[in-house]
Amino acid sequence: MAEAKPRISILEYTGKATIVSFTDEKILEETDVKALQESIMSVIEQDHRITLVLDFGNVRYLSSAVLGLLIRVLKRVRERDGELRLCGISPKIYEVFKITRLTKTFDIYKDVESAIKD
Amino acid sequence: MRHSLLVESKPSAVNDICGRILSQVEQSGYSREDVFAVHLAIEEAFVNAVKHGNKMDASRTVKIEYTAGPEEIEIWLTDEGAGFDPDSVPDPRSGQNIYKPEGRGLLLIRSYMDEVSFNERGNSIRMVRYRHRPRALEDEGVEGT
User: Cβ of B142 and A109 within 8 Å?
Assistant: First the structure.
């Protein structure tokens, strides 16, 4: 299996939110998760009351390590009086959130458009 | 036929393991849902074995055995650690545990595999996923807000 290096190569700034898209289908290794976390954290630090939208539209697989990353991101965003929204989550990935009951912890939207609506 | 692998205690080794086992699972005609479930279970179990079992000690190995038969996929992972009591693992869904970054691996394994058991020492896990078994979990889209 080819190594997957998760990146956030697409960054869009709208008037209301910062949209970060994952570009890889699979987010696997712990080192990859750490690199991804550093990238996202640096985005959070750029704006005090950030509305951060994480777009999972390209992601087809993730593990509990990524859920841990999202928890850390959520805490940091809240510490900085911001908001975290997730979107573009496929049914299989959504099932992982449901099993772990994180659907109640995160604000999850169908797509980027609905995530930046208000 | 039971396949066997002896793998070094390095989290990145999971890529090669998943590649080998999942290609076997796919060749045996299992569904994409089965492949997803087995993939997740292997990764969570292997990371647990390397981090919590072998304590990231590179001199220790993880033994992986697997079969992809016509009716079920069966996987065993054994580390060289002291073992643990799976019943002592806190429920990551309850109370403040929901805000902890770790502790969801075993819950996911139990959710995606039909049978999960440990040896007495707690350093070896056996996981089974059946080809045809009705499951409570169903794919549901995000309703949107």
Answer: yes
Residues of B in contact with A31 (CB under 8 A): 11-12
CATH topology of domain B3-130: Heat Shock Protein 90 (3.30.565)
Q: Is B140 within 8 Å of A75 when comparing Cβ atoms? A: no
Q: Among A26-35, A37-46, B14-23, which is the least confidently predicted range?
A: A26-35
Cα–Cα dist A70/A76, whole Å: 10
Per-domain residue ranges for chain A? Answer: 10-115
Instruction: Return the CATH superfamily for domain A10-115.
Output: STAS domain (3.30.750.24)
Can you give the pLDDT at residue B137?
59
ipTM of the complex: 0.89
Three-state secondary structure call for residue B121: coil
Q: Which has the closest alpha carbon to B86: B101, B102, B103? A: B103
CA of B70 vs chain A CAs: smallest distance (Å): 24
Cα B72 to Cα B68: distance, rounded to the nearest angstrom: 6
- Render pLDDT for A8-29 as a digit per residue (tens, 0 to 9): 655 677 778 999 998 888 776 6
